[in-house]
Amino acid sequence: MKVLRVLDRGLMKLEEHILSYSIILIAIMIVGNVLSRAIFGKSWTSLFGQSFSPQEMSTFAVTVATFMGISYAARKGRHISMSAFFDLAPYKIRKALAIVIPFLTAIVLFILMYFAYEYFISLYESKRKTTAMEMYAYYLAFFVPIGFGLGGLQFLRNMWVNIREKEVYLAQDKKDYS
User: Fold this and answer.
1) DSSP labels, 80-129
2) Is pLDDT at 175 greater than 70 in this prediction?
3) pTM of the model
């Protein structure tokens, strides 16, 4: 169990770094390009050449942040939820929902992971490249199945915490606020 905790903590730190640097890259690309247009009257693409595209780099970073963020949000219990019925339900129903909902969510994420992997493989085999930077398109899709898979694992983990513990948990370390 100690090995799993060390691996989990390492994965969490990796997710945090990937998300942080993705958000920083988005900010630099968007703000830098806007400032370049305001100050020099030209976008970075014009200044640095057609092989550099802040839009493509931002798209890449947004994709990474979105799909790697699924796992991180599930880990922290910060994912979007429709909690109106959950919050009003009595303890036993809330406890049952806290087990069933993460299980179903994990199944959906694993199915999406499968389709995302198939898409990734099709992009890899096609050797398609992006328009401006001529980067392989499968680089963009690489993080999608990983994000879905890690998110599915986190939801299974949330389900397991609710099976194991008496209280209702929204995530491993986040008890229900009700």
Assistant:
1) ----HHHHHS-HHHHHHHHHHHHHHHHHHHHHHHHHHHHHHHHHHHHT-B
2) no
3) 0.86
CA distance 140 to 67: 11
Residue 138's pLDDT is: 94
Give the angle subtended at the CA of 76 by the CAs of 108 and 146, to the nearest 5°. Answer: 45
Q: DSSP letter for 136, please.
A: B
Inter-axis angle of helices 143-164 and 91-126, to 10 degrees? 160
Tokens of 153: 């694992």
| Residues ≥6 apart with Cβ < 8 Å to 35 | none
CA 30/CA 2 separation, integer angstroms: 42
Residues 6 or more apart whose CB falls under 8 angstroms from that of 19 comprise 65, 68, 69, 72
